[in-house]
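Entry for molybdenum atom complex. Fields follow.
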Amino acid sequence: MIIRPPAGIRSSEITSEALYEERRRFMGRSAGWAMAAGAVSLGVLPQANAQLPQSGELYRAVTGPYGISDKPTSYRSATHYNNFYELGDDKAAPSAYENHFVTRPWMLSVGGECNKPGELSIDDLIEPHQLEDRVYRLRCVEAWSMVIPWVGVPLGDVLERFQPNSKAKYVVFKTLHDSDRMPNQRTSVIFDWPYREGLRIDEAMHPLTLLAVGMYGKVLLPQNGAPVRLVVPWKYGFKSIKSVVSIDFVENMPRTSWNASAPDEYGFYANVNPSVDHPRWSQQQERRIGEWFKRDTLMFNGYADEVASMYSGMDLRDNF
Ligand SMILES: Nc1nc2c(c(=O)[nH]1)N[C@H]1C(S)=C(S)[C@@H](COP(=O)(O)O)O[C@H]1N2
Ligand SMILES: [Mo]
């Protein structure tokens, strides 16, 4: 297990009291992570979480693998600059739901090509697993990026419980379809709702792929996909589907929302690749939210060592 707590934030970067507060909270969390890491190395694992809280702090997470030392994006930006079309068409709209989105009860169905399909509550889905803190890069196809400390469980560990069979070649995810709770589903025609995403089974089982229930040590806010969302850090952000209610194992490559709405612009794989431009803009660089200068986009968003072998023999230019 690679344990690398996030690096501290330089005091020269602190520009306001609010940011200072955030830093203080974040550093507190890091200390917690370091302690958790110590516990892991001694073989004393904190207990798996009991019931997930609906808001506030998430305790009992341990430092997971694959953490990066890049400075996390401010909590304010990560929760107020969002793409979540069910909650509005622009970046500011989703955060208006911060206190107005019902996340309990929340049931998930897991089915399709598996031996043990089931319908279970978010607690029953997550409770058997150890929550992990993992700091990942997030790269949107629109050429901006963030660094987010997620709290979640490896998706593969969850999926194994349902015993996918040999026909399970892909996994399909769907977001809640309820225009009372997600009013923009009534007004926006950008997608044929619900929002759908998919992964190949090996991508879904890859240890980097996370089912997140929190970020920055707290329960996910509605605008970030409460109460549970996917995080696939080597793919463009739109693959990381929010507010998931169903997961199905299927035999054939599924149609996904972005691919169906603009097949020439958004592929099924959508692996971050600086050498394959979007038809309307370059993907070579990105603007990290909170930074002045653009930075180079990394192949597979910096996760090539972990994931490139899954695509050997595939033409990465075709499989955008
Ligand atoms: N259901 C749903 N999931 C979604 C989206 C969406 O509109 N609906 N937007 C995607 C896009 S384009 C991005 S970049 C990320 C943004 O996640 P964040 O707001 O938590 O940063 O969520 C993805 N998941
Ligand atoms: Mo995105």
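NOTE: The chain has a mean pLDDT of 88.
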